[in-house]
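User: I'm writing a short methods note and want a consistent example. For DUF1330 domain-containing protein, I'll paste the sequence; you return only the structure tokens, no commentary, since I'll be parsing the reply automatically.
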Amino acid sequence: MTAYAIAALRNTTVPNEEVFGYMERIQSTLDPFGGRFVVHGAQLEEIEGAWPGGVVVISFPDKAAAHGWYDSDAYQELIPLRTRNLEGEVIFVEGVPEGYDPSSTAARMRAEAGRAVS
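Assistant:
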């Protein structure tokens, strides 16, 4: 199942040579794991609430590939270039399967909530 690495980044307005180097080298760390950018450097449109900075979304064939990329020597070497210059959080999350219907999730959650109350 497709998995995503999502980063919420702050203090992204003043890139420097380390950030440029990170950006120039990151794709080569993603390629062996089938990673590709889905969102990067896009202008945000705040609809509800205030978003504190930028967002990056990278897709992978599955969560194992995402972990393989993040744990790879090549990416571990780049991490300090990002963390010395940008604050933020990074998460991995699996996508939903083809044909996903949120009403089935609601039914499961309703049943679980009913068991918890009983």
